[in-house]
Amino acid sequence: MGQLGYNLFLIGFMGSGKSTLAAHLGKRFGMEIIEMDQWISKREGMSISEIFDKHGEEYFRNLETNLLKEAQEKKNTVVSCGGGVPMREENVIEMKKSGKVVLLKASPETIYERVKDNHDRPLLENNKSVSYIAHLMEQRREKYEAAADIALLTDGKTIAKIGDELIEKLMPADSQKERQI
Ligand code: S3P
Fold first, then answer.
1. 59: closest CA among 76, 33, 35, 84?
2. Residue 91 exposed, middle or buried by CB count within 10 Å (0-12, 13-18, 19+)
3. Is 79 helix (H, G, I), strand (E, B) or coil?
4. Could you tell which of 14, 66, 91, 124 is best to mutate to test the pocket of ligand 1, judged by most ligand atoms within 8 Å of the CB?
5. Tens of pLDDT along the chain (181 residues)?
6. Among positive and negative, which fits the CA dihedral 21, 22, 23, 24?
7. N vs C: which end of the chain shows fewer Cβ within 10 Å?
């Protein structure tokens, strides 16, 4: 895959593998990576949990929207979005202005295993169970699916396999676009 003239926005539930896939695409295709949580935390000089505690969730959500707007100046960049990003309609519009939205799906059990030892996810901090994850995932499902241009199932797959599936799904979309021109 050569340089992309657009960006890829990875969306999905916390622990669905967005950061891991972003790192893989960065390494394999030399794409620039924006890790949203990391950027926000660095800029604000505090962890995501501290931002929620000190300023509240709305403040954090506004930072996310601002960062998506900044990303529009880039191309060939993979943006690993926070899990809440697709819940704001405005965010979906902003992502589509400069790129394609890729949804990573994983089962609540897989997610639980990946997030259980992490303590910088305020929404899960006192709710770490498969049943709560399943509940929140269900609440988000419709918006996640509606935002996605491409969806990938990740359970039981290696990151290399997920990367390959993404490329396969991207390429026909690209050549279709060319045919339309
Ligand atoms: C959130 C997901 C987190 C982080 C914040 C809120 C969410 O990002 O942005 O804790 O609402 O799903 P990850 O999906 O990278 O864990």
1. 84
2. buried
3. strand
4. 14
5. 778 999 999 999 999 999 999 999 999 999 999 999 999 999 999 999 999 999 999 999 999 999 999 999 999 999 999 999 999 999 999 999 999 999 999 999 999 999 999 999 999 999 999 999 999 999 999 999 999 999 999 999 999 999 999 999 998 655 555 544 4
6. positive
7. C
Residues sharing a CB contact under 8 Å with residue 139, sequence separation 6 or more, in sequence order:
none
CA dihedral sign, ordered 78, 68, 114, 138: negative
pLDDT score of 181: 43
Residue 122: CB within 6 Å of ligand 1?
A: yes
Distance CA 170, CA 164 (A): 10
Which residue's alpha carbon is at the smallest distance from atom 16 of ligand 1? 14
Separation of alpha carbons 49 and 37, rounded Å: 11
Q: How far apart are CA 18 and CA 12, in angstroms?
A: 7
In sequence order, the β-bridge partners of residue 77 are: 32
* Interacting residues of 22 by C-beta distance below 8 A, sequence separation 6+: 10, 33, 35, 78, 79, 80
